[in-house]
Amino acid sequence: MDLPTLATEASRKGIQLLGTGDCFHPNWLRGIRKLEERNGFFYFKREDGGNPNTHFVLTVEVEDERRVHHLLIVPSISKAEELYESFRSFSPDIDSDGRPSLRLSGEEIAEYAKGAGALIGPCHAFTPWTALYAYHDSLKDCYGGMVGSVSFVELGLSADSSYADLIEELHDLTFLTNSDAHSPYPIRLAREFNRFYMEDMGFEELKAAIERKRGRKPVLNVGVPPAEGKYNESACIRCYTHFSLREAIIRRWRCECGGMIKKGVRDRVHELANCDGTHPEHRPPYLHLIPLAEIIGLALQKVPSSKTVTEIWESLLAEFGTEVNVLVDVPIENVHGARFNLDARVIEAIEAFRAGEILVVPGGGGRYGVIELKPKTIEEAQEDVVVKEEKGRGQRRQLSLLDF
Description:
Blueprint: H1 3-13, E1 17-19, H2 26-33, E2 36-38, E3 41-43, E4 55-63, E5 69-74, H3 77-88, H4 106-115, E6 119-122, H5 132-135, H6 139-143, E7 152-154, H7 161-164, E8 174-176, E9 193-197, H8 203-211, E10 217-223, E11 235-236, H9 245-250, E12 261-262, H10 265-272, E13 286-288, H11 292-300, H12 307-320, H13 323-329, H14 332-336, H15 344-355, E14 359-361, E15 370-372, H16 378-393
Parallel strand pairs: 1-4, 7-8, 10-13
Antiparallel strand pairs: 2-3, 3-4, 4-5, 5-6, 9-10, 11-12, 14-15
Helix pairs in contact: 11-12, 11-15
């Protein structure tokens, strides 16, 4: 996870702009300072003099006194340094942790961000840990008098536009589909991403696009199906048994195994829902996708890191340029007409994701959901999951449809 590797792999993925993350950390910021800068974006100067393939914008995730995480998008190194100095006396770990903990409220953090010209919004707003709606019932509860300075909501892996637009206070805000890069390689890098209409590469253009000003705007959100998220449904964090909200309440959030039942994103959203979910006019389409290597692996029933999957992934990129091209932009008939012998199952899998013709056995309790490419009935898909679990770790009770 270093800047050169991230820049190289982002260009293969098809991502032109990455958040740096951790821009308050002295060592990470030292590396950012070595990059070329133009209009508030940072990049490696190409030896051939061409335009850079990957730009970086300064970003940092911070944790407030209630454990809510906030994303700051920062306009310049000098402003990152200014915020670092402002926060240093409120943080025990700002020099050691890329995501520092601050003894400040969400409102106070937003006030500092506004003073530095940074954009702020809640990270992974619906997850049951360290998230806005885990600890607050509204934006105002968290940001107080600075609620008008919130520019966006990051949805997180367990939510999409159909979830978030059930909450009326979010209708005026831009939704960002971002994800942490747990690896610099395309199977994890940019599992979720946004597409913006911008006139040029620069902080002010990005700010205008997020705030939907001067004709700049988001035009596409791309993310994993929300049911695949680790906390989509209410489930036990020990044995992963799923429960309806009513059943969890009756059980006082304790599973029969003794483990804690963690409230799922879907149940939390419906607790907060106060409108019919109609999308506001400015909301762009939301495309449900997973990384290309995972799609290939599902199609061929192989692990994404296998040699077979890697060879097909490399061949697709050699022909179509980037992973995003293959997943989003290239006409499917072109994929059918690939110049190498592409397995028909892979083409069918790409088509299925583009058309939304997949089934997801929902995740919960800290474990990801399971995607079925060729949908069976929901009961059959759930039974397959149980059989795989029993083979891996001994017997557990049969799940019923109500558990999902």
